[in-house]
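Appendix B. Raw example, untouched.
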Amino acid sequence: PRWCIRDRGEAQDGLERGLEVTQMKGPQLREHSEALLRALRSRKLEGHATRRNARECVGSGQCLQGCREGAKLSTNMRWVPEVMERGGIVLSCARVARVTIERGRAVGVTGRFVHPAPRRGDRLRGARFSVRARRGVFVAASATASAPLLERSGLRLPALGRGWRGHPGAGLVG
């Protein structure tokens, strides 16, 4: 099939180059991460500094709340501006339910618009939408939602959902 990649790491390596992924070091790690790494090493457990897309990270620990320094090259900082510069359209509040697959190729997405700030107790569901891609579909539904989205869409791949890695904040490990 067309979606098969001959070299397993080829797509990942390309994405990491584009996102400027590097291994955290020095002040980026802060004392709590250094302490976690020391504890793992002392117990001969596997552990390493996280590789992430935050080239100018100063270690503020605000990644999930939105980096105050603008260092994290998340979707809104990296891909959205590029899509818009190239004439693309960004649909906000458009929750994708399925990727449309035809003859083994992703050709679009379907879903439903949702209200950006529903009032408490509201279960407002907006209109359904269907978007057909001109060139391809890029799935970026997060580390925890991409595999389930592809499974709901009918993809059955041996590697789907395997090899997931996360980087828990050391401040949360007890």
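End of appendix B.
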